[in-house]
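Loading example: each entry is read as two labelled lines plus one structure line.
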Amino acid sequence: MSIDLLVQALLNGFGLAMVYVLVALGLTLIFSILEIINFAHGEFYMLGGYVTYYVFAVFGVNYFATLGFAILAVGLAGVVAERLIFRYLRGKTLNAFIVSLGLLWVMQASAQLSFGVLDKPVPSAFSGIVRAFGLVISVERLVVSLSAIVLIAALYLFLRWSRPGRAMRAVAQDADAAALQGVDIELVSALGFGIGCALAGGAGGLLAPVFAVSPAMGALPVVKAFIIIIIGGMGSLPGAVVGGLLLGSVEGLGSLFMGSAAVNVLGFLVVILVLLVRPRGLFGGA
Amino acid sequence: MRIRASIAAVVIAPLAAVVGTVVMGGAQDKTLSIGVLGPLSGGAASYGVELVRGAEMKADEINKAGGLKVGADTYRIKLVSYDHKALAADAATAANKLVFQDKVKYIIGNAVGATCNAVQTVTEPEKVLFSFVCWGTNNLGPDKPHSFRVMLSQWEVAEPFYRWVKEKHPQIKRVAAISPNDTSGKDTNTAVVKALKALGFEVAADEYYERGTKDFYPILTKILAAKPDMLDVAAAPAGEGGLILKQARELGFKGAKGWTAGTNPFTIIGVAGKDAAEGVWSPANINVRSDFVSATVRRFGAEYEKRYNEVPGVIAVANYAAFDVITKAMQEARSLDTDKVLAALTQKPFETVWGRLVIGGKETYGIDRQFLYPVVISEVRDGKVVDIAQVLPTALKK
């Protein structure tokens, strides 16, 4: 087996890993602030895909403008979901688990009724391939990966330096202490849920032209997102990035040596190994 | 979770029919419930949607003509359909529901091999007549006398298709086949590989992927490293086959492309895009706009397009024909008893949208339960589907 092939396999694995990291970051952000695991997170990813389909493919709006719109629209949908449903479940992990499962089915069934059950192809926003050192990557995937990295960097800067970002981190560390310092927990909760969903929507918008959109499209990325955040550690941004890259490289290399069913199991094997060695994930706090 | 599909005028009435035949008063008021199964959501949804629509068009035709006259009685047809998402467990549950709750004695339509096996565990013991388009090898056999395949399968298609490839494109020497990792996929790749070897091709790759896969870069990297002259997305449904072709092109593949189970090239063009789908050969397809097909099929295609705003693929036509043949057999038998209908069905040929329909397959399956008709090979040219050849399955030649 040639080195070129191994490097190409790694490149394949890394290619979309950053998009799945975006989905994972949304999940972990919501968990940090509201202490709930949103199983309907993949459906917000799906919403981002459909927004992209209609705005970009049907109405012909510029791709990046569409992406921005998808992020805003899905973020707003997230805020609505938080205000109507999840605000009452803050800290009630088990209740939120059941409710989010219900929301998952409602959103998926609604999408089937509204958009139809068949895959809707979204034309590629960027054509062509880049060849270098015997490696190949499509321009589309390159743009998608870079866009995801930009969004991850923007999230990092927002959380690190902005006032609402700092408030979110404060709530994630200790909600009661943050409230005593004057942080508006309700506002932070809605904003956190909205941003988490917006990240999923952005990921859906990024991958819509790569894969086409369908009502069930959210299932796979959300599974990968769970794997990523368990490997990286709940609530850790660097952990999610490292988890994504680790998963991507394991799956990419694994596909050269084994069948697709076995490759799908690899991610879970990594999770088991990480949990045995570091139960809180690679970057998880104590 | 089972999702009841409510597609167009398909009637889903879980509490309505107490028995398949419900006598409610006058002669025109009898109802015959007929089941339709299929994946109506997920990656293989295009199969289920076409099955339901094909059945729906024939059922509506019959109902508009005053109902189905069987002996002294006239029946209105009611379709009861369930989505099994291409999952065998869901298919078994749906079949149980159709047979024991909805009390149907006929299930006309199902797709995806493993789900057919699951359904047959319910239909055969209950003598429910079951017709399908599944491609599993063991879906037909002497131990399954109530089961029919109404569309050509890989065993009828692969050999004549690759015989044609060898004759017309002798530069193609190495072929890679990729299919879903389930019964349909394994059987299809097996048939393709068998045909390839028999005809002297080299098998560059014989690969499988999990249904629902979206990113084919990893598996394609391995396949393309074997340098195939031709890539056959054998049993992949349109959504996944289209993505494979798109991503193969992104990875630099420029060879020939085939789709042995290509039931509707129009759909794969939509997913793959015009450029990536260019040149795809589909031997299992029917092009309802082509000169190769009968006027009846063209008329069916026009009506289907008008009604659903989509071009029908071979599955819609096959299920329409199956519905036609089985209801005609009921009339021949003058009974709804499935054994009597089965006898009528296998006694003589029927005139259908395919033309004169032959039910054969004993050489392959040990029993004549396979609908046989000519294979038409089509090619995608500049975003359009063009029929380029017609070849005969070996069994039909005989």
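Chain B is about 40% helix and 20% strand.
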